[in-house]
Here is the input.
Amino acid sequence: MSDRPPAKAVLRVLSYNVHRWGDDRTALARVVKACAPDVMLVQEAPTWFGTRRKRRAMAATFDLRYVAASARNAIFVADGINLTGIRGRRIWRPFVRRRLNFIATQLPGGAVGGVLVLGTTRVAVVVCHLGLHPRGRVHEVAQVLTLCRSFDAPYLLAGDINEEPDGPVWKRLAEEGLLDLDAGPTFNSATPHKRIDAAQLSPQLTARLRHVPATHEDLAAATDHLPLLVELTAAGKRISSSCG
Here is the structure.
């Protein structure tokens, strides 16, 4: 007999840009714990010296485990959640001309994902963080979608798109046949007025966005983005697509 816990029929997936864990860490921990995610898809995870140590420490403040990363993206999971087939894609962003004729490049972007079992179905979860350069984002999202397809499973793709919904990245996601879970404005967290974070879903999956049970004060202090809390449901357990 296997000691592995039975697959869940419902998974709570939290996508969140944590601003390098550089704001109010206590408020951030309260927000994440209130969401009680099974899986957390992290953008702008801490980097530089002691990267893995910092990410493990951050995950621990949420009562989660750090299991995967690529560039500034990371995945944390709750106890009992088994993420397999983990793979990432590191994307070097194009050079950008700035003022004073200075040439610079942004930090590398990319995506990372893995496979979970939801009910009896293999489901991939993928997190990405696209760059600030418009032409660069189109290049990046094509590579992110290649990663998503490589799992050979229906998938949830979530992350910081750095572009509003009338842009070419969103058009490319729609062309891929993905369903958009519209959360409304996600940036900035204190006075949300732009929708630049996304949760996109293969049409074979059933999901809805859930209300984030946190105070405005904690959301504003925790980081500069609002989180997206997605509830994925196994086939045969249909739910409404609305927030609630």
User: Anything to note?
Assistant: Confidence is low (pLDDT under 50) at residues 99-105, 238-244. The helical segments are 25-35, 51-61, 134-150, 168-175, 216-222.
